[in-house]
Amino acid sequence: MREAPFGGRADWLAGQLRQAVADGRLPLGSRLPATRVLAAELRVSRGVVTEAYRRLSEEGQVEGRGRGGTVVVAGPRAAGPGATRALGSGAGGRAVGSGQLAHAAPPYAAFPFTPSPSTLPPPTPSSPFGSPPGDDVFDLIRTAAARIDLSPGVPDLAAFPRAAWLRAERGVFGELAAGGFGYGDPRGTEELRRAVARWLGRYRGIRVEPGDVLIVAGTAQALALIGRVLREDGIEEIAVEDPGSLGVRQHLRNQGLRTPPVAVDGEGVLVSELRDHRAVLLTPAHQFPTGVVLGGARRRELMRWAGDGGLVVEDDYDAEHRYDRAPVPALRSLLPEGVCYAGSVSKLLAPALRMGWVVAPSRYREALVAAKRYADLGNAVLPQLVLARLMESGELERHLRLVRRRHRRRRDAMIGAIRACLPGAVVHGAAAGLHLLITFGGDDNAGTDDSAGTGDFRDTDLAAEALARGVKVHPLSWHRQRPGGPPGLLLGYAASSVSAIEEGVAVLGEAVVRCSAGAGVRGPNTRTAHR
């Protein structure tokens, strides 16, 4: 930059950017670096970068999109020789890369157009983190390329009991009569409903008859059917935990239900906020995403609320995965007519099976069966029979014991890596589940009450920086409705090896430093806590 004409650095930078757009290094739709980041990289004032961006905006080549950044929207128009001159064709321009100036040809080719991992620009609009999450956000994050995937909610897929499944499948085919290949009961096969009833009695404390169980295509379909039935009953909204699952909100809203937030603290949902609501969806055994267990006093308060006519939809999404605490009984076991219970094998075996169940209060049972019938005539029969055989033979229980041991080792490795590489992080929800929540710069509560202030960066920027470095994580802010609260990340450990977990967390440590430096402020608080 020293050779750029004095007082003309904004012109010089605008010319470099025009040329980069013209030769395809900044393609249409790409997002320019944040002005603060680029100014630091080029060692110029932020005003130089702002002025260069302003000029390109006036020419119609870029467009400011608020939190979405500055985006290339058109190719360059004809301009004078000084503007269209090839990179480096001026008086001794310099190449910029990795934060330092160096003589090279052509100049400026190393940043931001072919960046090293440590100087990658913010995400493009197609990035999962480049804008507020849309309906396809989980499709985008699942298909995003990454060396290490620490996404939450995925079990150890490599541990799927293939041999046991094949044995059970051979047994089913060997015994199945010809009539078994016809249309099945929309409620599910008798064999699986009986096996699920026994499983729930043993592991979740729920006394239920096979006739009370409805087999569905995972919790996603359970929520869709429940939402439809509630709408038919005149219920237009269902309260949800905040923070709480973005995916759950998306499914409920797709059924036309409003999802007002109710706060979560260290004891679970604040039942006092349910006074004006008829229904609420909860994850009481292992709250998503904080990992909090609904406390005893809150459970009693919630049961009084439900006894007065409220409905609890209990999403028991990963209750079997516990490591450092005794099992917590399902709410359904305490007040059957006030709780609509949903569970699945997505976190126990694999999401690909698309297999789950609903146990509803008697007043909604037939309506849910009708909704299931008209949705798809019932789940595929053959996988149901195979799963029932796994459950009844004890194979599923053996699988659960195996993955608990493996998940615990991986969880411990992640906690150790966080302590070593992210000393400012507060760890939440370690006693159970398939993921950890870490927060930065706030108090120990990951909920919406942020009395200690927020961290020094946005967690979406941190997740984008991690993805640029090859590590996939989810930002906590996706799962909040109310503003405020410290930034955080959801880190899945069940599906990754110990070495991948340690490498991934080390990369996150580098990303935190980068994001803190990009914000122009100190890094997160350097204290460690474990919850």
Q: Can you tag this structure with a few keywords?
A:
transcription, alpha/beta, transaminase activity, disordered C terminus, aminotransferase, elongated, DNA-binding, PLP-dependent aminotransferase family protein, disordered N terminus, 531 residues
The main β sheet shows up as:
8 strands, mixed
- Based on helices, strands and strand pairing, what is the structural class? alpha/beta
Task: Tell me how many strands there are.
Answer: 19
Number of helices: 15
C-alpha termini separation: 49 Å
Fraction in beta strands: 5-15%
Region (Disordered): 108-131
GO molecular function: transaminase activity
Keywords: Aminotransferase, DNA-binding, Pyridoxal phosphate, Transcription, Transcription regulation, Transferase
Biased composition (Pro residues): 114-126
